[in-house]
Each structure stands twice: as C-alpha cells, then as structure tokens.
Specification:
single chain, mainly alpha, 300 residues
Length: 300
C-alpha cells in the first residue's frame, strides 16, 4: 500500500471513528428524551430489531452462504449476554441519571478491562497499568461523591454496571474474533437482543408506542445504531486501534454539552475533577498498552 493510500485510509478511519462517537451520544440523547414515556425494554427491543436488516444485508454481501455460520457458540453466548447487559444497564440508567454523568461513567471501560483481563483471558497486565486503573476508579468515586446525601441509587448502580458489562463484552469479542467473523457475531447478537427484549415486553405486558412521533424516534435509534456499528467496524479496519481509542473521549465534552443544552443538567466542580482523572487514567492505559504491543511486534 502506498503512503498516500495509507494516509487516506487513516483519515477516513478517524472520520468514521468520530462519526461513531457522535452516533453514540445521539442515541443516548434520544433514549433519555423518550424514556419518561416508554419502557426501556421496548426501547431496547426496537434498538436491536432495527439493527438486524442492515447487518443482514452486509453479512449476505460479505459472506454469502456463511452469513450465519458460528464456530464458537459459547463465545457468542458470552458476547451476547454481556452486550445485552451493557446496553440494558446503559439505557435503564438514563432514566435515573444525567446524560453527562452516564457518558463519563461509560468511559471507564478501559479501566475495567485492565482490571479484569488478567483473570478472564489471562492477559498479562503490569503493576503500572493496574495502579493507573485504580487511580481512574478514584475518579469515579469523586464524581459519585459517596459523602453526599442520597448518592447511592438505581441510576448509579446501573451506570457503573454498564461499563463493567461493556468491559466483559470487549474481552469476549477479542476472544471471539479469533474464530468468527465480526459481521456474523454482530448479526446474531442483535437477533438475540430483539428476541430477548420482545419476550420481556410480552411477559411484562409492556405498552407499545402510542404516538407516531415516538415510533419514528425508535426507528431513528435503530438506524443510527446500525450506522454506528458499521462506522466502528470500518474505522478499526482503516486505522490503528491505538490511534482511534483516544478519540472516544470526544464523547465526554459532547455528552456534557448535550446534557446541559437539551436537558438543563447542572455540573459540580467534583464532576469535572473526577472526569479529568478518568480520562487521563484511561488515556495512559491506552498509550501504555499500545507501547507494549509495539514492543512485542518489534521483538517478533
């Protein structure tokens, strides 16, 4: 590949990564907008349902008759359960806590990945990264301010569980990518997600959308989610993951601005201190991991 083509691919990868971040915040904002009027289970059902058609078309064009072929069924099951847990907690948390807080909490995923990787996939994590991860977790405590009144509630629990499940999902995807195609795993994941939340809606007799406006928003959430997954997949294909990972933190200022402008959220000084600690810690972890991979690559 020529230097010009490589540079062009990198620029396109960065553009797609930034677009993916904007899509994520847009989805979260729309979920928060309609969550007072509709069950989170119904929102999740439509989110997964409307992702299926585009992924199916993509899978058929890429893999033809192998579109639904899965080698590691146990790996797919773990990826599906953790993915549903992450998004389920994320969407549910937005009913209780600010968009700006949820956006920041979700960026703790690299911290939890660092803490969990040695136990779950036997990845070697040095003491330096472990210490930085614990400092990052201190930032979470500063934001949540456990010394304040009524700091502990459902929203906080769900907001912290979402990145934990997200970290577990990321680790499972790493393992699953060794045996299965990402489009196929994403397709099955969204099919199972739609089925699971449809059953939950039926069993709990959840009310279906009553207004065309809400149905349109649900459709938009599903379509943007499909576009988000495509942007994520192709950005990682066109540009190095180490270059793209720090760009995810653009979601923090975008989430804060969206929360303040659209939902009149008020932010404290401890929020900004804790957010800074989380972002700096996560960026150090990402940089350190990139350096270690590069070192191993050179030795090989």
């Amino acid at each position: 590949m020529s230097l010009i083509n490589k540079k062009s691919n990198t620029v396109m990868g960065i553009s797609l990564s930034i677009t993916e971040v904007i899509c994520t915040i847009t989805i979260a904002s729309l979920v928060k907008l309609i969550s007072p009027d509709l069950s989170v289970f119904m929102i999740l059902f439509f989110r997964y349902l409307f992702c299926v058609p585009i992924l199916l078309i993509t899978g058929l064009s890429q893999r033809k008759t192998d579109t639904f072929n899965i080698v590691s069924k146990s790996g797919l099951a773990i990826r599906t359960i953790t993915g549903l847990g992450s998004f389920g907690c994320l969407f549910a948390a937005l009913q209780f806590i600010d968009l700006s807080l949820m956006t920041t909490l979700f960026q703790t995923m690299p911290i939890f990945i660092t803490l969990l990787a040695p136990f779950l996939i036997k990845e070697v994590v040095g003491w330096f990264r472990r210490i930085i991860a614990m400092i990052g977790f201190l930032g979470v405590l500063i934001i949540l301010d456990p010394f304040s009144e009524n700091w502990f509630h459902y929203g906080v629990v769900l907001g912290v569980l979402s990145p934990i499940f997200g970290a577990l999902m990321t680790l499972s995807v790493r393992k699953l990518s060794e045996t299965d195609h990402p489009t196929t795993t994403a397709l099955w994941y969204n099919i199972f997600g739609a089925f699971v939340f449809l059953i939950i809606c039926i069993l709990n007799k959840v009310q279906w959308p009553q207004y065309n406006e809400i149905f349109i928003i649900l459709l938009v959430i599903g379509l943007i989610s499909s576009f988000q997954q495509i942007c994520l997949a192709y950005s990682l294909k066109l540009a190095p993951a180490s270059l793209l990972a720090p760009l995810r933190y653009i979601s923090v200022p975008i989430g804060i601005l969206s929360g303040v402008y659209f939902f009149n959220e008020e932010l404290s000084s401890t929020f900004f201190i804790g957010t800074s600690i989380i972002i700096i810690s996560s960026l150090i972890i990402i940089k350190r991991e990139s350096m270690i991979k590069e070192k191993h690559k050179n030795l090989a």
